[in-house]
Amino acid sequence: MTRPQDILRPDVLAMTCYPVPDSTGLVKLDAMENPYRLPAPLAAELGNRLADVALNRYPEPRPAALIEKIKRVMQVPAACEVLLGNGSDELISMMSTACAKPGAKVIAPVPGFVMYAISAKFAGLEFVGVPLNADFTLDADTLIAAIEMHDPALVYLAYPNNPTGTLYDSADMERVIAAASKSLVVIDEAYQPFAQQSWLPRASDFDNVVVMRTMSKLGLAGIRLGYLAGKASWITEFDKVRPPYNVNVLTQATADFMLDHLDVLDAQAAELRAERTRLEQAVAALPGATVYPSAGNFLLVRVPDAATVFETLLTSRVLIKNVSKMHPLLANCVRLTVGSADENAQMIAALKLALH
Ligand SMILES: *Cc1c(COP(=O)(O)O)cnc(C)c1O
Fold it and tell me: Is the pLDDT of residue 157 over 90?
């Protein structure tokens, strides 16, 4: 009889699944989701559109019209091509797979987005994390030294970074891009709707840069659609490792529809940016809380005891993320997603309880 432990990779056997807590009945402020639904008339119109979709057919593998629309609406430079992924998670996975030569490495600042390391590990790449400064700004000198030492295939820069919310200094980023002339630098702009700053207009100015975006944080986390913009020489190669029908027909139709109604999502993002400012001020006024500047739809907050804060909020039926065990620099830090005004008020009330 064959057992999994006889044939599976030892590192897979030793792993645990990506943890997603049960959020039933909770105010869900742990995963940077947009709290707002579509306005009912728009949702109904989308429903009609989706009813017309041919579910019996495979999706278009490279949906040209949708890609053209993304290029136009998102102002992708003319010299760039676009690759679609089932979320940016899948784009990260494709890049890892395509770069997984024996001994190849991936470098990213830490603490950062966990999928860079997880995806590297799945593909058999070595992940090297380079610590940020204590204030979560980029330690560009150390990062550059690590790039020179390890000669990585991929360097990830999340702009802004998750879970810290930091928007790295542009001059630092330029130095890193220049130092990584033998690597591909992936600038991850998942939070662009909240940062309102972007490297996308410059994506074709460099031979070694691609820019990754997603619809997830903009209010469409459920459809799973990410896109990667860069020179055709990169996009053509990554396209080869794309699973043939990776973006399903309902996602393609929804994205096509929503790109014509982006004003709705943009208005929601604007509301969330205003809520972020209000939340930041309210949390900063609480005893013992240190809030870090954030360009995302979330705030990183250091508290006296993160475990107690997490549990007290859960008792108040508010789910946040305790990131304190992710990295030593995050000791006693929690990450709060910016929700609706109501949700944020509930979170603040619960935080007051927890911190007094
Ligand atoms: C949330 C997030 C993503 C989005 O991943 P999707 O698979 O597109 O939902 C990508 N990068 C960072 C840094 C994120 O925080």
Answer: yes
Residue that terminates a domain, selected from 209, 229, 261 = 261
Ligand 1 centroid vs 33 CA: distance in angstroms?
Answer: 11
- Confidence category of residue 126, pLDDT binned at 50, 70, 90: very high
Q: Using CA atoms of 77, 81, 85, 91 in order, give the dihedral in degrees to the nearest 10.
A: -90
How many domains does the chain contain in total?
Answer: 2
User: Ligand 1: which atom is nearest the Cα of residue 225?
Assistant: 8
Q: Can you give the residue range of the structural domain that contains 327?
A: 4-40+263-355
Model's pTM, two decimal places?
A: 0.97
Strand 290-291 with 105-110, pairing: unpaired
118 with 248, same domain: the answer is: yes
Ligand 1 centroid vs 94 CA: distance in angstroms?
15
Per residue in 164-206, pLDDT (tens digit) is: 999 999 999 999 999 999 999 999 999 999 999 999 999 999 9
Instruction: State how far the Cα of 241 lies from the Cα of 96, in Å rounded to an integer.
Output: 10
CA of 68 to the centre of ligand 1 (A): 22
Kindly give the number of the ligand 1 atom that is closest to the alpha carbon of 296.
Answer: 15
Residue 50 included in any domain: no
Q: Do 220 and 250 reside in the same domain of the chain?
A: yes
In this model, does residue 125 exceed pLDDT 90? yes
Q: What are phi and psi of 331, to 5 degrees?
A: -50, 125
Instruction: Give the residue, by CA position, lying nearest to ligand 1 atom 1.
Output: 190
